[in-house]
Protein: DUF2231 domain-containing protein
Amino acid sequence: MRIIFSLWASILHLWIQIGTPIFPPVIHPMLVHFPIVLLYGSVLTGLLGLLWRTPDRFFDRSSFWLLVLGLIAGIVASAAGVISEQFVKWTPTTIALLSAHQTYAVLTGLFTILALISRIIARYPRTSQSRRAWSLASTGRGRQTLLSMIFSIAAVVMITMGASLGGTMVYQYGVGIHGVSYHTPAWLSHHQP
Structure:
């Protein structure tokens, strides 16, 4: 286990060394909206798929691929978060907030992976009247189930809590905000009383 943690620390250190000079400090807020909207979309289309069965399983397929894309986008946003946190001024409050934010991100990823695994395991029922239903690489797998929906909803709850905390960090505590000053734009100053 020590080897795994050492390897992970080395990979993280290398990523920070490579990414910090390349990406802007605000790379995480620029990318984090993608996993949020993709996971919400997956749950919405998954619910539509459970309620409205079409012959081609359109909503079911859409939900599956939105879940896959949400996981990929979450990994990219998390990697960007590692870069963005290098520019944060560290205080006890910042450390506590970022730790909780990261915990929500990890739980989001865990529930998303569990939802995908439960979908990959689940088979579509065979229907004699229609052609073979869509499946993951024609194996008959990838069906939305109640368990995968529960995991997907849990992922959405976790990403919502993490996003709320992320907004609180920026707007209430100023995490990642450097030297921002407010000034009235020239076009707006003419309209003020």
Remarks:
- Residues 168 and 174 are 8 Å apart (CA to CA).
- The chain has one domain: 31-176.
- The longest helix spans residues 92-121.
- Residues 31-176 form one domain.
